Structure formats: structure tokens, C-alpha cells
UniProtKB/TrEMBL annotation:
GO terms for biological process: iron-sulfur cluster assembly. Belongs to the Mrp/NBP35 ATP-binding proteins family. Transmembrane segments: none annotated. The lineage of its organism: Bacteria, Bacillati, Actinomycetota, Actinomycetes, Streptosporangiales. It comes from Trebonia kvetii. Homodimer. ATP binds at G26, K27, G28, G29, V30, G31, K32, S33. The chain holds residues 98 to 362 of 379 of the full protein. It comes from the Bacteria. Binds and transfers iron-sulfur (Fe-S) clusters to target apoproteins. Can hydrolyze ATP. The keyword Glycoprotein does not apply. This is Iron-sulfur cluster carrier protein. One of its GO terms (molecular function) is ATP-dependent FeS chaperone activity. Keywords: ATP-binding, Hydrolase, Iron, Iron-sulfur, Metal-binding, Nucleotide-binding.
Amino acid sequence: RGGAPERVIPFAQPSSLTKVYAIVSGKGGVGKSSVTVNLAASLAAAGHKVALIDADIYGHSVPRMLGVTGAPTKVQDMIMPPAAKGVKVISAGMLKPPGQDALPIRGPILHRLLEQFLADFYWGDLDYLLIDMPPGTGDIALSLARLVPGAELVIVTTPQLAAAEVAQRAGTLVTQTHQRVIGVIENMSYLLCPHCGEPMDVFGVGGGEQVATALTKLTGVDVPLLGQIPIDVRLREGGDSGTPLVLSDPEAPASAQLIKIAESL
Ligand code: ADP
């Protein structure tokens, strides 16, 4: 095709020891970024070397949720990502020119941006690279499959069956890309009533199980339901304040689920 030379992506090399997980969802608002940030913080707290790429170009919320205040810095000809809570982070929001709010980005630019994140930053030796993907079945998932064929998918859904259907469609993409879906995370599974302690099924039941079963059938490989995370006001507050709940209260039921899932990665 000519043009720029192919860049070397360390995570795509056969010798790479980094586990790369793309966190995907069918639609926005299901808690994909919140889950990703808490998983990254759990892994870092457990002593792993972790990086998080915020590829959710339109809804980039990772820096705020992790309390990242720094910007990428140039050291000789390398670009170093900023870090917070032991997690190296790069986000589209860090690259946009000051004063510009929305990024006018289309498919091919998105591909190049992801390539830039993967190839041009100095990540060092990583145990885990998590990638917060844009919701849906967009081009960027195909881009990732081309750039890092070994990347595995984690699907986030709510229990709501309508949400599960779109999540399932996002998962179906792997039949084209031959990526592995390592499991499904159900978020906002229930709310513990602050008065009586009984769980309330705010968004219904069964979405996570439904996606896991459907993708197991589709791929012929077991796709487990990795965990069910309750609604917790403090999980949202932790995202707003930049301290993930798994760090501020590892004993909370939502944290316990997230930490258990992180340990299974
Ligand atoms: P997505 O990345 O899927 O668009 P977000 O992670 O941005 O979703 O979450 C959407 C909103 O829901 C945010 O305000 C977030 O704080 C909140 N949220 C996500 N998961 C939970 C949860 N388990 N309990 C309470 N609030 C949550």
C-alpha cells in the first residue's frame, strides 16, 4: 500500500508475555469503563505491571476514573504514558488539542490512533494490557484484531435482555476475527436495598448468562460468566473522584466480584 512503514507493536510479537484483553460492550452506559478501570487497579494492586488504553474515543472516561492528571511526556524519541494507581494510561482525550472538545474521528483515523497507542508509546514490560473499546461492533474491533491478533475479548453487559442481545452481537464479531472470548461480566446485576438488605433486580435478570451461553454455542468454546457486579453508589462515586472502589473498599460486594474476576484473568 506504500505510505508509512509498518510499525512494530511489541504486544503482537510471538515472544510477548503480555496478556492483552479488549473490554467490549454492545452499547454505551453498561459500565464497561468502570469495570475496566477497577480490573486494572485490582491487577496493579496485586503487584502486576498493568497498562490501560482508552480506545473508547467518543466516551473516553478512563483518565478521570483513575485520577490520571499527567500527560504523555517525551523522553528522547520515546513517548511515556502517564500513570495513576500503578496503571499506565493513554487516552484519546490526552491527545486532542487544548480547547477542542469533540474529536472528528473516522474509521481509518481510529485505526491509526490505536496503532499509535500500541506502537509509539513506551510501555515497558507489561503483565497485562487492558483496552477499553468503543461500544458496538465497530471498525476498531477489527483493527485491534489486525494489530494484535492474540488479543482476547471480555464482554460487559447488564442483566437486561435487550442489552444482552446487543452485547451478543458484539461478541459474534469474533467469528470473523478468530479472537477468543474469555468470558462475560454482568454489571449492575442487582441493588442491595439500603433499608431491608434484599437484592432488587433493577435491570432484570439473566443477561450475562444469556450472552455466555450464546457465545459458548457460537464459538464451540466455553465462554463463562466471570462475575456479577452489583449496583453500588460508591462505585459511581469512585469513578467520579478518581479512586476506584476496589482500592477504597476492597471488601464491598462489588469490589469482591471485581477482584475475583481480575484474579481469573
Ligand atoms: P460505559 O463505559 O459502558 O459507557 P461507564 O463505565 O461510563 O459505562 O458507566 C456508566 C455510568 O454508570 C457511570 O456513571 C458509572 O459511574 C455508572 N456505573 C457503572 N457501573 C456501576 C455500578 N456497578 N454501580 C453503580 N454505578 C455504576
